[in-house]
Specification:
The chain is mainly beta. It is built from ten helices and 49 strands. The two termini are about 30 Å apart. It binds alpha-L-arabinofuranose.
Length: about 800
């Protein structure tokens, strides 16, 4: 019988009130075309193709000319405008398609504005909304233009709801009209702010009661080159002064190009702080550290030119917290917020790695800690949760006495299920952890086939129980990315999906919400018994190379005195399969001859365990040494002894579980070309002893991914006087458990249960069925401090038990 024991009288760590937060990045049309409610795309004609998003509207008997000009703009920062010259034979002009259409609702007000001047004649400008089927939704005439630019406005009230409307601007009568900065905003924005944010999207954020809001990303912080990095100072002031930037997600993925994706910065840093205020989230800005994205150019700011980047950080702190009389506090005040924004945390760099990052980070830390010791600084631990970059960075962060380290992980559900104990053994005295970007990938990272299904959501939930149990180490966590437009996404999965009128939370969203709304104040110890599912440390053997040519001979696998495999390669390679590389047998050795290839051959059975593998190996040419694989279950799950890895600098024991590389142990070491080495690996259970030329070089415990039938964590909500127990059952059978509430004398007989469940792990929500997988509340009775409960298959359950 499974038991879940909660030690209710032994409260542990305090839970950070800002523990469960959100990560915002302008990806998947998350800002322009998403949260930022502007309906006109390329409103200032500043895209490189100045008429992108616009078309000429010229009915058959209309005569005229459309031209894009840049002499005499209405503002120096907005150099382009459009001239419509009509001969007056019929209404003639331009039309904007919006962001995959414009979402408008019947009877609601939409505020049009544009800078307009009349150059010849005295024509009328018809401002019109058309539905997707071509029906006219509303039309307002504007006129009386002068030779000087003037902001003209009109209010449109569509007679129908349409998710794919478009805006037309038609000159009626003979004459010439110039147009710039054309805008259309719903009146009903979040808090009805003119030029504000989409209310329905913000509402979903507010409903999460997020502890913090990380902004503006993500890779967008870094830019593919430094020139295109995110610069917060360019996002302040009147929107027409905010200079457009190409969005890095415009061109990042060949398979999902988005040529019309730009950043108008209508949602800039002021709006970010304001949004944090609105939804009660701590602001967590992330700034560029003097490095462009290392997946792209990796461009570096020379160390002696880093000062402006550090100054940007100092100025941002002043913009957020400085008195109204300070230069940047005055900018904030001028934008309408004399009170400070109470910034307490700041991130320096997103997904950076290597010594170059540490050198730059150290300079930021020195200045910021001296001038602003009150600000907690966040460093990035790179893109993956356990690889060699990650292993390199963590000790450096300890030396730098970083406050918080931002760890990321995008991996299949198995990784999350097998890592719920990741933080049980973390150093309690070092920097705290911000699990700042994560999402279970139903297929693989960056696969377009990933789905926001229940299976992934429950794997995340199982993992989050581990974060909650370790709230003394883990300060914060956020899922990523946040938003995606169903027709405009580059990346999947995402927490919230939208079209132009609708929005829905995924099962992953509801998991986040269940943690956030049931956060509690202190952790209570939980012990689970009888939940571990069998995990067997076994699998095939393999021989491999990474950008190196090498050969192998005299391969032997033995177990308990029995020979499981003996390959001398005198009669070919029976029992071996070539996975990749250029392999052939030469002089009794199995050779991978291509020095640029990553080669792999396999032999044996997946059922093999506790064996000893011995062989001879010789490097022939190339950058590294050779790799010997054991416990190979598949490309996503295996263990490697990598000899002369990482440019022939290190011997490393590496595990690859659930598509993630973990560098488990490393010693300095290299492999000489042309020399035969004796290699031996002894497997005993989960332990590996690795020998080179008869000498033990390294050993490690490499437990196989351990999955549980149930996962649980418990907290106490002091104000409500409640014990909150979260239990996740990701499997396909109901989980019966006996629950022990130890250390209490009595509890209220009625327990509130909130359950997120569905029939199949593949179940998802959608625009048409937004609540197909959503939490359901119920009440049940218990007789005392021990009771049985059935946790449905594929479920997360929150039990709230009154203890006072
Ligand atoms: O969340 C999407 C991207 O994933 C982020 O921009 C980046 O930080 C990570 O690689």
């Amino acid at each position: 019988m499974t038991t879940i024991k909660v030690q209710a009288d032994q409260p542990g760590a305090k839970i950070n009130p800002a523990m469960w937060g959100i990560f915002f990045e302008d990806i998947n049309f998350g800002a322009d075309g998403g949260l930022y409610a502007e309906l006109v795309k390329n409103r200032a004609f500043e895209f490189p193709d100045p008429l992108m998003g616009w078309i000429k509207v010229s009915p058959s008997h209309a005569r005229g000319e459309i031209s894009v000009r840049d002499g005499g703009p209405f503002a120096p920062t907005n150099s382009h405008f459009v001239r419509i010259q009509s001969e007056g034979t019929a209404p003639f002009g331009i039309s904007n398609e919006g962001f995959r259409g414009m979402g408008v609702r019947r009877g609601e007000a939409y505020h049009f504005s544009a800078q307009i001047r009349g150059m010849t004649g005295s024509p009328v400008l018809l401002v019109q909304l058309y539905g997707a089927d071509g029906s006219l939704l509303d039309s307002v005439p504007l006129g009386g233009f002068s030779l000087n630019w003037k902001k003209c406005t009109a209010t449109l009230r569509p007679n129908d709801t349409d998710a794919k409307a478009r805006l037309a601007l038609l000159v009626e009568g003979k004459g010439t009209v110039d147009l710039a900065m054309v805008s259309l905003f719903p009146e009903k924005t979040w808090k009805n702010r003119p030029g504000g944010l989409r209310a329905d999207m913000v509402q979903l954020l507010a409903d999460l009661k997020p502890g913090f809001l990380r902004f503006p990303g993500g890779c967008i912080v870094e830019g593919s080159v430094l020139e295109r990095r995110y610069q917060w100072k360019n996002t302040l002031g009147p929107v027409e002064d905010r200079q457009l930037l190409i969005n890095r997600w415009n061109y990042e993925f060949l398979h999902r190009p988005a040529p019309d994706y730009f950043q108008s910065f209508g949602l800039g840093f002021f709006e970010f702080f304001q949004l944090c205020d609105d939804i009660g989230a701590e602001p967590l800005p992330i700034l560029n550290c003097g490095m462009a994205c290392q997946f792209n150019s990796g461009e570096l700011v020379p160390l002696d030119e880093l000062e402006p980047y550090i100054q940007d950080a100092l100025d941002l702190i002043e913009f957020a917290n400085g008195p109204a009389a300070s230069p940047w506090g005055a900018r904030r005040t001028a934008m309408g917020h004399p009170e400070p924004f109470h910034l307490k945390m700041l991130g320096v760099g997103n997904e950076q790695w290597g010594p170059q990052y540490i050198e730059r980070l150290a300079r930021f830390v020195k200045v910021l800690k001296e001038k602003h010791p009150e600000i907690a600084l966040v460093a990035s631990a790179g893109p993956l949760p356990a690889d060699e970059r990650f292993q390199f960075l963590w000790p450096k962060f300890r030396e730098l006495k970083m406050d918080i380290v931002d760890e990321h992980c995008y991996a299949p559900p198995l990784w999350f299920l097998a890592n719920s104990r990741r933080y049980d053994h973390y150093d309690r005295s070092g920097p705290k952890v911000f699990f700042g970007e994560y999402a279970a990938q139903s297929v693989a990272m960056v696969s377009v086939k990933n789905r926001n299904n229940l299976e992934c959501a429950l794997a995340e939930a199982a993992y989050l129980t581990g974060l909650e149990r370790n709230a003394d180490v883990v300060r914060m966590a956020s899922y990523a990315p946040l938003f995606a437009h169903v027709e405009g996404w580059q990346w999947t999965p995402n927490l919230i999906w939208t079209d132009n009128l609708r929005v829905y939370g995924t099962p992953n969203y509801y998991v986040q919400q269940l943690f956030s709304l049931n956060r509690g104040d202190v952790v209570l110890p939980v012990t689970l018994t009888g939940v571990e599912l069998p995990a067997r440390p076994g699998g095939h053997i393999g021989l491999g190379t990474h950008q190196t040519a090498a050969e192998f001979k005299d391969v032997q696998v033995t177990r308990d005195g029995q020979t499981l495999l003996s390959s001398r390669f005198t009669d070919g390679t029976p029992g071996w399969s070539v996975e990749r590389g250029n392999w052939s047998v030469k002089d009794g050795a199995f050779q991978q001859a291509d020095p640029k290839a990553s080669g792999l051959v396999l032999a044996g059975e997946v059922s093999w365990s506790d064996y000893t593998l011995s062989l001879k190996a010789r490097k022939l040419a190339g950058a590294e040494g050779f790799a010997v694989m054991v416990r190979y279950e598949g490309p996503e799950n295996h263990v490697v002894w990598n000899l002369g890895g990482y440019e022939n600098r290190i011997h490393g024991i590496q595990a690859r579980w659930a598509q993630q590389d973990h560098l488990v142990a490393q010693v300095p070491g290299s492999i000489e070309t042309g020399r035969w080495y004796d290699v031996k690996i002894e497997l005993k259970g989960a332990k590996l002893d690795c020998y080179l030329d008869g000498k033990l070089i390294q050993s490690a415990e490499v437990p196989p991914p351990q999955v549980q039938q149930l996962y649980a964590s418990a907290v106490r909500d002091e104000k409500a006087g409640e014990l909150i127990l979260k239990v996740v059952n990701p499997g396909d059978a109901a989980g019966e458990a006996q629950i022990h509430l130890d250390g209490l004398t009595s509890v209220a007989p009625e327990v509130k249960a909130v359950t997120l469940a569905s029939a199949s792990p593949g179940d998802v929500n959608s625009l048409d069925h937004p609540l197909a997988v959503a939490p359901v509340e119920s009440i049940f009775k218990i007789a005392g401090l021990r009771f049985d409960h059935r946790f449905p298959k594929h479920s997360m359950t929150v039990l709230r038990i009154k203890t006072q």
